[in-house]
Amino acid sequence: MDNTTRYERLRERYMNGDLDRRSFLGLIGAAGLAYGVQTPFAKFAHAADVSQVRFDGWGGVVSEALRENAFQPFESETGVEVVDGTFGGGDEYLSRVKASQEGEYNIAHLSGVFDYARYHNLGLSTVLNEDNIPNLQYVIPKLIDVFRNVSDGKLSCVPYDYGTTGLAYNRKYISDEEMQEKGARILIDEAHKGKIGGWGDWRTRIWYGALQTDQDPNGATDMEAIWDAIRTHRDLSLKYWGSGAELMSLLAEEEIHATEGWSGRIFALQEQGHDIGYMDPPNGYGWQECMFVIKGSPMEACEELLNFMLAPETAIAVAEGQNYPPALDPNKVDLGDKIPTLPAFDPNGTLDGLTFADPAYWNGNEQEWSKKFGRIQKGY
After folding, report:
1. What share of the chain is helix, strand, coil (3-state, %, to 5)?
2. Could you tell me which residues come within 8 angstroms of residue 81 by beta carbon, excluding any fewer than 6 positions away?
3. For the segment 250-269, what is each residue's pLDDT rounded down to a tens digit?
4. Rounded to an integer, what distance in angstroms lies between the CA atom of residue 139 and that of residue 146?
5. 3-162+287-356 fold
6. What is the mean pLDDT of the chain?
């Protein structure tokens, strides 16, 4: 029986409910099929010389979903260890990479095309051999094209998921009606002083400052009004949170009643039974994340891992675990029952309803704006 036939039979059993996901992944891994039926496992035999690949991501439920559904099966199949690292923000991680020896960091779970552009412009990008990643065929074309546009048609990453940074609120204290009325201004509302939170990230703070002053986040014309809104938010807030785990804890323990938050983390709180509402205001912050391969990395092993991660069954399992829609095109892949219920999910695969950060605009202002926010954050 050839690999294609074996894969299709296993997939049919899985889709019919005769196999659970864990058993399915184990069987296709044991059969060397998780790498895409177009590419035999033997093609990657030279990658076996590599003993480990380092991956750095956002921690919490996101890292747990990747470890259980992607990294552990990959390690069992290939014998290549995936070493996990975590970070709380993109700027902090980039500083680590710039200070490291080449090859020390391999794959990073980056957020936004502007991060991709930053790494590429700093000479930290690579060129993936896309023949080694046949599962790219399943990815939403728009998500791939925006990265190609930055790096002259080549790719240093694969798109992996997307989501939004919307408004999260505790319905015990803030009604849906109040949120609809106030939108982003809920975060600068005196009525909730001391029960407001926010991510200590300069881009997010400026984006929401733009929404609070009725400006285009990708083309503000009155930065002084935005800085004033950021100061107001700072003075009314209990604290800035620094990670997804802290965001969830602050909301779950009712230390804060309102904050902007990452869509998947808020969905996780709702799954846990917390009465937390979530809304994306007009021009809310949409983002797509990628798995970026850093200069100096073992390319074949990294490509092997990325292809494994993009295999539909793996990507769907990770998406269901981390609560962010996968980059897979719903026109090409049956995404199951849960993913269409996730915040930000686009059933059409166009993502036209999301507003993404313009990388040239944000990177062009990074030096000035990040320093300015840093001063405001410290009370100036």
Report:
1. 50, 15, 35
2. 51, 52, 53, 75
3. 999 999 999 999 999 999 99
4. 13
5. D-Maltodextrin-Binding Protein; domain 2 (3.40.190)
6. 90
